[in-house]
Amino acid sequence: MTRIAVAGAGAFGTALAVALSGSPPEDCRVTLWGRDRAGMARLAATRETARLPGLRLPPALTVTADPEALAADVVLLAVPAQALRGFLAEHRAHLAQAMPVACCKGIDLTTLEGPTRLMAAALPRSRPAILTGPAFAADIARGLPTALVLACADETLGTGLQRLLSTPVLRLYRTADVVGAELGGALKNVIAIACGACIGGGLGESARAALLTRGFAEMRRLAIALGAEETTLMGLSGLGDLVLTATSEGSRNYRLGLALGRGEGFDPGVTVEGAATARAALALGGRLGIAMPVTAAVAGLVEGRLTLPEALRVLLDRPLRAEI
Ligand SMILES: NC(=O)C1=CN([C@@H]2O[C@H](COP(=O)(O)OP(=O)(O)OC[C@H]3O[C@@H](n4cnc5c(N)ncnc54)[C@H](OP(=O)(O)O)[C@@H]3O)[C@@H](O)[C@H]2O)C=CC1
Ligand SMILES: O=C(CO)COP(=O)(O)O
C-alpha cells in the first residue's frame, strides 16, 4: 500500500488528488490535506469546492486538516511557490521520511531558489522531484487528457514516480533535468502576464506572438545559465506551458496581464505566481549578467513603476540585434 498525500487543497492540489484517487494506478491511498480546518471539514462533508465548480470528490479520496497525513510515502506539494519555504519549515518533521514532489511554479523571492532547492534544503535526506507542465486544474479535475513532466535527478525514483502518478488520461513524461523543468514552469508565468497585457492593451496578436517568442528566448537564456538543458525548455515545461498560459483566459497569469493592459484592478487574493517570479527572475538575470527586457517590463507593470505605453517604448527602443 502506497500512501500519497497532496498538501494544499487549492485548485491544483484538489485536481491532482481527484485524478489520482479516481483511477489509482497501483495499490495506493490518496489523502488531500489543507491547512484550513473548517474548510476541510466542509469539503469532507459536501465533497464540493468553489475552486473547482461542478466537481464532486470521489468517495475514495480522504480529506483532512490533520498534519499527520503529511507523513505519507509520497507527498505532492501543491502550495503556492512563495508559501513553500514556510510550509516546509512548519511541517519538516512530518515530511522527513516522505518522497516530496513539488507541484508549484515559481522562484522564491527571498532566496531566489526554485521549489526543489527549497525542498532539498529543508529535507536534506530527500531526493526532490517536481511535477509540472501544461494543464489547467479544471481540465485535470474533469478527466480531460493532459500531459505533464515528472523531473527527478534520480532516474530510478523518477521512473517509479512517473508510474505511480500517471493515470489513463494524465500522461507523465520523465526527465532528470530538475532545474530545466522547474524554471520552465516558473518563467512561463512571467511571459503569460506580458502576453495578457499586450492583448488587454489592444496591441494585437502579432505583438503577442513577438512577445511570446522573445520572452521564450529570455526564458531559455536564464534557464541555461542556471544549469538547465535547452531540450527541457523546448518541452512540456517551457514551450508547452507557455503556449497554454500565454494564449488562454483560463490562466490567472494571463488574466492579470489582461487587467494590467486594460487598466483594471485584479483580486489580490488570486494566486498569480508570475508577479513575484518576475522580480526574482530579474534579480537572477542581473546577478548573471543576462538581459531580460520582457521580464523587466512585466516587473515594472506589476509594481506600478511602468505604464503599458512606457513598457512598450522601452522594448521597442532597444538597439536592433541578431535573433538569438
Ligand atoms: N490552478 C492550476 O491550473 C495550476 C496550478 N499550478 C500551480 O499550483 C500551485 C498552487 O496553485 P493553485 O492550487 O492553483 O492555487 P490556489 O490559490 O487555488 O490554492 C492554493 C492553496 O495553497 C494553500 N496555501 C497557501 N499557503 C499555504 C501555506 N503556507 N501552508 C499550507 N497551505 C497553503 C491555500 O490554502 P488556503 O485556502 O487556506 O489559503 C490554498 O488551498 C501554484 O504554484 C500554481 O502555479 C500548476 C498547474 C496548474
Ligand atoms: O500553470 C498553469 C497551467 O499549466 C496554470 O496557470 P495559471 O497559474 O496562470 O492559472
Question: What does it look like?
Answer:
The protein is an alpha/beta fold and 324 residues long. It has two domains: 2-176, Rossmann fold, CATH 3.40.50; 185-317, N-(1-d-carboxylethyl)-l-norvaline Dehydrogenase, domain 2 (Orthogonal Bundle), CATH 1.10.1040. The chain is built from 14 helices and eight strands. The chain has an eight-stranded mixed sheet, with helices on both faces. Helix 7 runs parallel beside helix 10. The structure holds NADPH dihydro-nicotinamide-adenine-dinucleotide phosphate (NDP) and 1,3-dihydroxyacetonephosphate (13P). Residues 105, 134-136, 189, 192, 241, 244-245, 251-253, 273 line the site of 1,3-dihydroxyacetonephosphate.
Please describe the biggest sheet, giving its number of strands, its sense, and whether it closes into a barrel.
Answer: 8 strands, mixed
Judged by helices, strands and strand pairing, the structural class is alpha/beta
Q: What is the strand arrangement across the widest sheet?
A: 3-2-1-4-5-6-7-8
First-to-last CA distance: 50 Å
Each distinct ligand: NADPH dihydro-nicotinamide-adenine-dinucleotide phosphate, 1,3-dihydroxyacetonephosphate
Quote the CATH topology of the largest domain. Answer: Rossmann fold
If classified by CATH, what would the architecture of the largest domain be?
3-Layer(aba) Sandwich
C-alpha-based Rg, rounded: 19 Å
Task: Please tell me the total number of domains.
Answer: 2
* CATH level 1 name of the largest domain: Alpha Beta
Percentage of residues in strands? 5-15%
Number of helices: 14
Helical coverage, percent range: 40-55%
Shape: globular
| Mean of residue pLDDT values | 97
N-to-C SSE string, H for helix and E for strand: EHEHEEHEHEHEHEHHHHHHHH
Q: Which spans of ≥5 residues are poorly predicted at pLDDT below 50?
A: none
CATH-wise, what's the superfamily of the largest domain?
NAD(P)-binding Rossmann-like Domain
What is the total tally of β strands? 8
* Oligomer description: single chain
Protein name: Glycerol-3-phosphate dehydrogenase [NAD(P)+]
Subcellular location: Cytoplasm
EC number: 1.1.1.94
Main location: cytoplasm
